[in-house]
Amino acid sequence: MESQETPQAVASTPRAGRKNVKVGVVTSNKMTKTVVVSVERRVPHRLYRRIMTKTSKFLAHDEKNACSIGDTVSIIETRPLSKRKRWRLLQIIRKAS
Fold first, then answer.
1. Inter-residue contact 87 to 75 (CB < 8 Å)
2. Whole-model pTM?
3. 7, 52, 53, 72: most buried, per Cβ within 10 A?
4. Dist. CA 75–CA 96, nearest whole Å
5. Which tens digits make up the pLDDT trace of 43-97?
6. What is the C-alpha separation between 13 and 62, in angstroms, rounded?
7. What was the pLDDT predicted at 17?
8. What is the Cα–Cα distance from 49 to 31, expressed in whole angstroms?
9. Which domains does the chain carry?
10. Is pLDDT of 4 > 80?
């Protein structure tokens, strides 16, 4: 008889239930219930090892249209909501002044 993992054992694995969270700045809110979030990361250049800033843009679902341009927000990975939208708004960290 082979040992089968219980559902609790599967859920307690390190990767289960852990979703990717990113912090970025809202650059566009012109779409309905969608915002564009720019996330910056600092990486060394492959050859010269100089630190560079790279920017990635993510489309995130904003159910209440609460974000405005310049807000610092936290987004979390989710199931695909549309062709390019795979993130949703977790919280607004700081409103733009």
1. yes
2. 0.79
3. 72
4. 17
5. 999 999 999 999 999 999 999 999 999 999 999 999 999 999 999 999 999 999 8
6. 30
7. 73
8. 39
9. 20-94 (2.40.50.140)
10. no
Strand boundaries in the chain, DSSP class E: 21-31, 34-44, 51-61, 72-77, 85-94
- Which pLDDT tens digit goes with each residue over 15-37? 667 899 999 999 999 999 999 99
Residues 73, 64 contacting (CB under 8 angstroms): no
Q: Measured in Å, how far apart are the chain's first and last C-alpha atoms?
A: 64
* Residue 33, token pair as written in the block: 């219930």
At 28, list the tokens: 């566009």
Residue 66, CA distances (Å) to 21, 57, 73, 76, 96 in order: 19, 19, 11, 16, 12
Residue environment code for 17-38, b if the CB has 16+ CB neighbours within 10 A, otherwise e = eeeeebebbbeebeeeebbbbe
CA distance 25 to 70: 6
